[in-house]
Amino acid sequence: MKIFYDENIPYAKEFFSDFGELVPFAGRELTAEQVKEADVLLVRSITQVNEQLLHLNTTLKFVGTATIGFDHIDQAYLQQRGIVFTNAPGCNAISVAEYVLSALMVLVERLNVNLITKTVGIVGAGNTGTRLSEKLEALGINYLLCDPILKKAGDSRKFCSLDEIRKCDIISLHVPITKNNKHSTFHMFDQLVLAELSNKQILINACRGEVIDNQALLQLKKNNKGPHLVLDVWENEPNILTELIPYCQLTTAHIAGYSLEGKSRGTEMLYQALSKLLNKPVEMQLGKILPKAEITCKNQLSDNILDIVKQRIFDVYDVRRDDEIFREQLNIKSFDYLRKNYPVRREFSALELSAQQCWSETLKNLGFNVKS
Ligand SMILES: NC(=O)c1ccc[n+]([C@@H]2O[C@H](COP(=O)([O-])OP(=O)(O)OC[C@H]3O[C@@H](n4cnc5c(N)ncnc54)[C@H](O)[C@@H]3O)[C@@H](O)[C@H]2O)c1
Ligand SMILES: O=C(O)[C@H](O)[C@H](O)COP(=O)(O)O
């Protein structure tokens, strides 16, 4: 069996060697000729999987993307060919939620904001939106959820409209990119919507770049208007609108979901799905492969709970590191290079803390590994 896998899929060898011959490829460079003998194709979000790529192949049985997003997959075509498809729902939801939290902690300091008095509007209450809401709840920060699809499906949580979200102090986007349906998200934040946001609000996009009209955003910022921006994702990646970068408070190369755990969980989920398809026992576990984290805790300088939480969050993940790399290196290295060579980042759960202090419960609820 020939298993073609994107070279950016972590632990592919560990998980898939027993299934057959492994053939790595560069995500944006895979051709129909190369993939014509594949039995299994494992991708990330930068490979377009469609008839154009697969028309020479007659052997493919399984396509897996080690990501939640599947806008790069022509599912109808795969179905028509009888090829089993799976994505990796939730694999990186914690990673994105921790990215957002780290960004909020930076902006609290920089803009002198009292988070406890603010409301966060979460658009999309799926895996990531939910993880984020849980972390905000742990901190006692007010939030609103907008997800008309889940509301209609009978989700018992309280939902609000997008109009209400637009009035929130902080808006965080966690929807898939969709076009031509009732709940399309393409340019959900277009010129008209953006123009109504104030320069006191914060807009965070860590889902798909095309949810915000980037050109409209740039025009607004050039006129000294519009919200504070945290942008992890961009229209037209990897050829992004670099003029927007100086107008962002924090800006990164689509790495919100790139914790080691987040990326590797995607691999593990594909391994589980392929094992099921081939009736093989699930013997490998990510927990046994992941290295022990090396995280140094800085001394906490205050007894204020939010200050302590902020310090522990920065100990594990300070988004300013990625923001600096992006601003300094994007002129020299490509967008894809920065993603491919992303430094190791761990999730809060990788930091073991003792449960002696009164704020331990809060840290535990945020996802830190608190031992009693
Ligand atoms: N930056 C990154 O590294 C990164 C990482 C993970 C996911 N993502 C992106 O973020 C998206 C969300 O991730 P997720 O794991 O939460 O996915 P998910 O599928 O679990 O949740 C998405 C939610 O959005 C809702 N939704 C769809 N259209 C909507 C609309 N018009 N208004 C409000 N809600 C709507 C859906 O009902 C669903 O509940 C993914 O599709 C992916 O594109 C980016
Ligand atoms: O959809 C997802 O899961 C995320 O956007 C993910 O971080 C994409 O990463 P990539 O496949 O581009 O490496």
From TrEMBL:
Q: Where in the cell is it found?
A: Cytoplasm
Q: Does the keyword Cytoplasm apply?
A: yes
Domain D-isomer specific 2-hydroxyacid dehydrogenase NAD-binding per the UniProt entry, residue ranges: 114-244
- Where along this sequence does the record place binding of substrate? S45, T67, Y258
The chain positions of domain Erythronate-4-phosphate dehydrogenase dimerisation read 306-367
Q: Where does NAD(+) bind?
A: D147, D232, G257
| Domain (D-isomer specific 2-hydroxyacid dehydrogenase catalytic) ranges | 9-279
Signal peptide span per the entry? none
Top EC category: oxidoreductase
Matching entries from Gene3D superfamilies are given as: 3.30.1370.170, NAD(P)-binding Rossmann-like Domain (3.40.50.720)
Q: How does it assemble?
A: Homodimer.
As for family, the record states: Belongs to the D-isomer specific 2-hydroxyacid dehydrogenase family. PdxB subfamily.
Annotated protein name in UniProt: Erythronate-4-phosphate dehydrogenase
Gene it is expressed from: pdxB
